Task: inverse folding
């Protein structure tokens, strides 16, 4: 599914998933090479490694048994909040 997310410098996070007009809300932090999200409706922080393809593309991957499995492809990042999310 497609999503649009906004990562506030303060650590607030909003993600509009699957065309929803209502955001899923949480907080975010960077821990080493991982981005971690703490959703408001979940008890445990979710952390995933971020990797680049060296050509401007990025993936969020699941590290499992020594393998990195791509789970999210990021097509674009924009500075600021161009969609007023």
Result:
């Amino acid at each position: 599914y497609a999503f649009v997310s906004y990562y506030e410098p303060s650590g607030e996070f909003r993600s509009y998933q699957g065309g929803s007009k209502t955001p899923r809300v949480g907080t975010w932090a960077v821990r080493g090479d991982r981005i971690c999200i703490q959703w408001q409706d979940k008890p445990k922080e979710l952390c995933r490694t971020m990797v680049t393809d060296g050509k401007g593309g990025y993936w969020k991957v699941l590290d499992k048994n020594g393998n990195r499995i791509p789970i999210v492809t990021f097509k674009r990042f924009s500075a600021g909040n161009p969609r007023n999310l």
